Amino acid sequence: MATIGFIGLGNMGGPMAINLVKAGHNVKAFDLSQAAMDTVVAEGGNAAASAADAVTGADFVVSMLPAGKHVQGLFQTGDAPLFDLISKDALIIDSSTIDAATAQSVSAAAAERGLSFIDAPVSGGVGGAVAGTLAFMVGATDEQFAKAKPILDVMGKNIFHAGQSGAGQIAKACNNMLLSILMTGTCEALNMGMKNGLDPAVLSEIMKQSSGGNWALNVYNPVPGVMEGVPSSNDYQGGFQVDLMYKDLGLAMDLSQQSASSVPMGSAARSLFSLHKAKGNGGLDFSSVIKLYQDQ
Amino acid sequence: MATIGFIGLGNMGGPMAINLVKAGHNVKAFDLSQAAMDTVVAEGGNAAASAADAVTGADFVVSMLPAGKHVQGLFQTGDAPLFDLISKDALIIDSSTIDAATAQSVSAAAAERGLSFIDAPVSGGVGGAVAGTLAFMVGATDEQFAKAKPILDVMGKNIFHAGQSGAGQIAKACNNMLLSILMTGTCEALNMGMKNGLDPAVLSEIMKQSSGGNWALNVYNPVPGVMEGVPSSNDYQGGFQVDLMYKDLGLAMDLSQQSASSVPMGSAARSLFSLHKAKGNGGLDFSSVIKLYQDQ
Amino acid sequence: MATIGFIGLGNMGGPMAINLVKAGHNVKAFDLSQAAMDTVVAEGGNAAASAADAVTGADFVVSMLPAGKHVQGLFQTGDAPLFDLISKDALIIDSSTIDAATAQSVSAAAAERGLSFIDAPVSGGVGGAVAGTLAFMVGATDEQFAKAKPILDVMGKNIFHAGQSGAGQIAKACNNMLLSILMTGTCEALNMGMKNGLDPAVLSEIMKQSSGGNWALNVYNPVPGVMEGVPSSNDYQGGFQVDLMYKDLGLAMDLSQQSASSVPMGSAARSLFSLHKAKGNGGLDFSSVIKLYQDQ
Amino acid sequence: MATIGFIGLGNMGGPMAINLVKAGHNVKAFDLSQAAMDTVVAEGGNAAASAADAVTGADFVVSMLPAGKHVQGLFQTGDAPLFDLISKDALIIDSSTIDAATAQSVSAAAAERGLSFIDAPVSGGVGGAVAGTLAFMVGATDEQFAKAKPILDVMGKNIFHAGQSGAGQIAKACNNMLLSILMTGTCEALNMGMKNGLDPAVLSEIMKQSSGGNWALNVYNPVPGVMEGVPSSNDYQGGFQVDLMYKDLGLAMDLSQQSASSVPMGSAARSLFSLHKAKGNGGLDFSSVIKLYQDQ
Asked: Where in this chain does the entry annotate a coiled-coil region (chains A, B, C, D) (predicted)?
């Protein structure tokens, strides 16, 4: 069993850390929120006095932070960079969703100091974090990936090796941009059908079995009542918030700009989520974007 | 076994008629092209001297024509409308892909005369027409649908009852608009990944198993070499032409305008196919739209 | 002075007919609404008993109708086509805004019968119709244009000869599509500036004098209070309704589809007006589309 | 006459510095390129040995750098930050086009140290820089603006006070985003007209005098031959490069993301420039985007 320093115990990080605890690892957990730490301690984790305390002596460091500047500041450029404290034998697994350029830059800085830092953002939401069924998209060398895999297996179900450093963030940005396109496209096809008198359940079934088939129709139908147990049938509560999708689309725009990649459909989807968010819907599940289309 | 008048023996209509012949029906086939008729006759069909000859005495009439004006002219408003000749006991199955408004208008005109006309456009391409595995999206009453089903089963695999008159055309317009969105979205996600160094096969696999999963990734990958037996691995020959997708998106625009449905993503996809078509790619498979994104 | 049959006395047609009356012409006016006819009669026009009565013996026929099907039905394909009654010496000036294909088709049908039909849609709104300051975009031969000019001069200020038959409709579709782009673009630039703390009047002035200068900034600022006497400073009442812009963008889509012209920006603008219209804003002036952008 | 430290003597900065020299100011010029410095020295400027040398003892510092990271590094966070050397009585005028957030951050850091830093990006291109007719969009206090104005007047013609710190960058991002929309919109309206047989010069004239009027039609027509002396009539050489427009649209996307402003039209325009750039057109004038639309 390994000693794991875990930093960032929010909605996602908390349950991920707890799954590591349950698997028998020695988890030294840190968060700025005492309440978040208490939850992990209640499951058998150890409260670290600080981020520095969490990583000292750890075999693995797992971080789950809001944005690239936090990751860079914490490990590399802040007043007390953790890179000064982490063992050369340890593996740092950053599961934050951040821009690929920062992930690559921090990983390169680690390598220069003989440290090992990989990007491993997740998808699957809070539900997946709790159930330990997250998907991880990992940017790492083969060796790093092999070392990380047993730890990631505890927290997730599908562990993808996307490529070298940064590739995890790139794969996630591509996937989530595509997801935003599938969801808006599905909403507008269903809305047009409904405005012309079709039953959304019937139309959903037809498209699902035809060339319109996609993840949204399969497991996340945006029309209330068509599918049970999805956010649309629960007033668009829970799920994946519009604000988070908007953040991810911002990362996709950054990636497209840096690489001069054309993203007309992703840009169009971002515009729709932005218009939807402007009307006060940032806290709703992202499938609520169908409301933007509907007549008032 | 039924007597079936079949009008329009093109790339789609020809093999559909032949499947009816092979099932033992008495098919009276007509097309302006003698060669097209010869092909059906060679399989055991009967050549009709005219459209009028084809429908006279038929239990079913199946039509497969290019556009709404042809359907309306042939049956209702032309110089020798077939409605004057078709039996009140017959069922007219129009499998053309046309605008819903015309389908509804022709069907209503039929009903006024005591005739029965349903819309049943198909998807599945030439391959599906030959193999008898087309999907039919049917706009009809329950009674009409029940009567049509055994005939459609001969030519297709999935027979969907989309709703009342026009619903087949509406469902197809919705599905194909969504398809255009899935394909362009998939192309741009893959292109951005590749421009940032990811292997398209790896990225495809990740997204297919994640929330980016969709028909294009499952069975029609647009990147050459990722998947065997698809148009992208055959220089974008065969498959579903850009010109046909552009036609279908025009029908979707018509439907959106008539019903004041917002279709920002479908419109964006149409713009991309239009830009791609302008560079002389109308005859390629529609997954070739990935070339629009790629660096030259 | 000429004898002019005038058909269609709505918000635009009424004042146009009255200006012809005031200029001394013998105007035989017809509309399905008796009230509309009364208004013209009160100014010295003559009430025609029917459209047929209005055109019989006229030197000029001016029509102002809602859509292509009305123009085609009235003149060419209806039960009592006016082409049967109009003199070969007369000039038919259709000022309706309709699709170019119908305009060209009706004009060709007229020419086959030795009649002369031109398209001359207008811009300038109800205010321009009343003041006689409309712009006319004319599709006609040089000879037809020369003959129409004195009549159009009575109703308008800028009389443009856009080209041959249909060119007036084409020019109007191009212009109004561009207008929709200017307006939405101006709204979103101003909104982004305001959200970042800029004064809309200051930003408007800067862009007006810079490379962002355009008609909307010059005479139709969409932000309330920046400019006096425009719809934005009057609760978006009056002006050019969202519903009419949406109709014109539908015509632009038709034209783009028929000619396989790529219109990504026009399509994007249409999507925005469509989303705005869906929330019950069809009756507001089109500059109200800025509300779609604004936080709620 | 003032002592002015000028850093960054590229295509824009060089002629701007020379205009300050010609006006009699003592210009201490620095650039990493010796050739760039030689050009300014040949006009009577003084070569500084380093950026530090250029700003020491200066009454004004003017900087013209590629991106926010250069500005931030040079003045504030680099190894030898110029803020350590600049007089508290001096005014720092940054004319670089950078993101507003960085401009505000650097200005705030300056203020904390008792220094005065304003943003004053320009428009008008190399021609305007040489002729001294640039437009400056200035983010500054009233006092700072008053102090900067006489210096800016030497290099420019229209000096706009956009607002407080950052407002110059914000105004420029808004204006250039709107410009990208006007240009693409104008290209597509003209292309659709031409594909339908209209003469581009005639259509340009009609729209210029109608509600489609905008800067592109007035002074920068994208169709070769319509207007003399513009890039379109010179094989799209010179002018404002696609690569620069793409950079500016990236800044607009950043600004929209930070402020959660919806920019559907700006995003659509960015997509078009991106597609155009991907085909090797980054070095052409931005009006060449009309080639993206045209049939091949």
From this structure: none
Best of D243, D247, D257 to mutate (most A CBs within 10 Å, chain A): D257
- Decide if D189 and C199 are in contact by the 8 Å CB cutoff: no
Cβ distance of A295 and C275 shorter than 8 Å: no
Closest-CA residue of B relative to C269 is B264
Catalytic residue among B28, B172, B279, B291: B172
Contact between chains at B264 and D268 (C-beta distance less than 8 A): no
> Sign of the CA dihedral D66, D70, D74, D79?
negative
Which one of C163, C180, C205 terminates a domain? Answer: C163
Q: Answer whether B185 touches A (CB < 8 Å).
A: yes
- The reply to whether A105 and A210 lie within a common domain is no
Over residues A124-138, the mean pLDDT reads: 94
Ordered alpha helix ranges (H), chain A = 13-22, 34-42, 51-55, 68-72, 100-112, 125-131, 142-155, 167-195, 200-208, 215-219, 242-259, 264-276, 290-293
Within this chain, do residues C36 and C157 fall inside the same structural domain, yes or no? yes
Residue A47 has pLDDT above 90, yes or no: yes
> CA-to-CA distance for D198 and D207, rounded, in angstroms?
12
Find out whether A16 and A134 touch, Cβ atoms under 8 Å.
Answer: yes
Which ranges in chain D belong to alpha helices (H)?
Answer: 13-22, 34-42, 51-55, 68-72, 100-112, 125-131, 142-155, 167-195, 200-208, 215-219, 242-259, 264-276, 290-293
- Per-residue pLDDT tens digits for C129-159: 999 999 999 999 999 999 999 999 999 999 9
ipTM surpassing 0.90, yes or no?
yes
Q: Which residue of A has its CA nearest to C269?
A: A268
- What is the arithmetic mean of pLDDT over C39-60? 97
- How many residue pairs bridge chain B and chain D with CB atoms within 8 Å of each other? 23
**Last residue within a domain, chosen from D163, D198, D233:** D163
A88 touches chain C (CB under 8 A): no
Whether A142 and A12 map to the same domain: the answer is yes
Asked if the Cβ–Cβ distance from D262 to C215 is below 8 Å, we say no
- pLDDT band for C160, please (50, 70, 90 cuts): very high
* Number of domains, chain B: 2
Q: What is the CATH number of the domain that holds D236?
A: 1.10.1040.10
User: Are A206 and A119 in a shared domain?
Assistant: no
D135:C176 CB<8 A: no
Enclosing domain of residue D224: 170-293
Banded model confidence at residue A125, pLDDT cuts 50, 70, 90: confident
Question: Is residue B125 predicted with pLDDT exceeding 90?
Answer: no
- Which residue positions in chain D have pLDDT lower than 50? none
State how far residue A74 is from chain D, nearest Cα, in angstroms.
Answer: 18
Is C172 annotated as catalytic?
A: yes
Q: pTM of the prediction?
A: 0.96
Convert the pLDDT of each residue in A217-267 to its tens digit.
999 999 999 999 999 999 999 899 999 999 999 999 999 999 999 999 999
Q: Are D119 and D138 in contact (CB under 8 A)?
A: yes
Same domain membership, residue D149 and residue D18 = yes
Which chains share 3+ C-beta pairs under 8 angstroms with B? A, C, D
